[in-house]
Amino acid sequence: MNNAAITINGLNKSFGAKRALSDIHLTIAPGEFVALIGPSGSGKSTLLRHTSGLIAGDKDSGSVTIFGRTVQECGRIKRQIREIRTDVGFIFQQFNLVNRLTLLQNVLVGMVTRVPTWRSLLRIYTRSEKLSAMRSLYRVGLHEHVLQRAGTLSGGQQQRAAIARAMEQRAKIILADEPIASLDPESARLVMESLAQLNREDNVTIVISLHQVQFALQYCCRSVAMKDGKIIFDGPSSKLSPELLRQIYGTSVDTTIDGTAPLTAKKKAIRDVLHDNKRKKLMGGLAEAGV
């Protein structure tokens, strides 16, 4: 039995004469936090979309499976894809929130597979469902904006709301397609911290495409580098040397890494303790409020 979270065997994809993905083989274990890096046009976004079954590969493609269930094979999306997608949250660069709805209403959308269709269409949710969504917003630090319209918030806040929505989906896997590409450094850090917390506390498997290699070094134990539709490196992020990065990006490392050094083990431990204390304080406040 296949115990991998994601298994990709021989995936190919062409757009006309251009080969976007070429013989991709990749296995990701449950609970991994994997960075997908590489220059623009290397195939990162295409690979994520194929993994979730949003796009079918070429007819000569192999297969993509999620927890042993086939997403696609030989260029055909399987009929059970909707059922499989209940375990897969997809976070886009564009946030994909409904601007006129509150953050709470947007996060409740994550429950669509667990509530009757008529209730989700009419936006009728029980008290316990609303409290669950509020807890998810607490976890990503948006408890003060629960009833604020999504369109009035910053890009970083909206992206964290998208993470909270994935929490309410109860996804076992999150695929994040350059979720911090348009964010300022502090907002990007908060988004990465939220994803790291979800990975650490809920054991959610996360595959995230990144342009900023420094975040791969800081948060992801494993990195998969792509170039021209092929995987050219798959290993510990600590092995991303300046020489290797020059090979991947074909440019000076200074344009790829902004000088942010990876966190030492001691600093990571201090960061985790601070985050746990903050989370306990927030959850304690919820308990006192009867949530």
Structural notes for this entry:
This protein is of the alpha/beta class and 291 residues long. Helices cover 38% and strands 22% of the residues. The protein has 10 helices and 11 strands. The strands form 2 sheets. It has a 6-stranded mixed β-sheet, with helices on both faces. α5 packs across α6. Residues 258-267 have low confidence and may be disordered.
Summarize this structure as a short list of keywords or feature phrases.
291 residues, six-stranded mixed sheet, five-stranded antiparallel sheet, 38% helix, 22% strand, globular
Provide the residue-averaged pLDDT. 87
Structure class: alpha/beta
How many separate helices?
10
Distance between the termini: 41 Å
By DSSP, the count of extended strands is 11
Instruction: Using the CA coordinates, give the radius of gyration.
Output: 19 Å
Instruction: Write the element-wise H/E pattern from the N-terminal end onward.
Output: EEEHEEEHEHHHHEHEHEEHH
- Strand fraction: 15-25%
| Largest β-sheet summary | 6 strands, mixed
Uncertain segments are 258-267
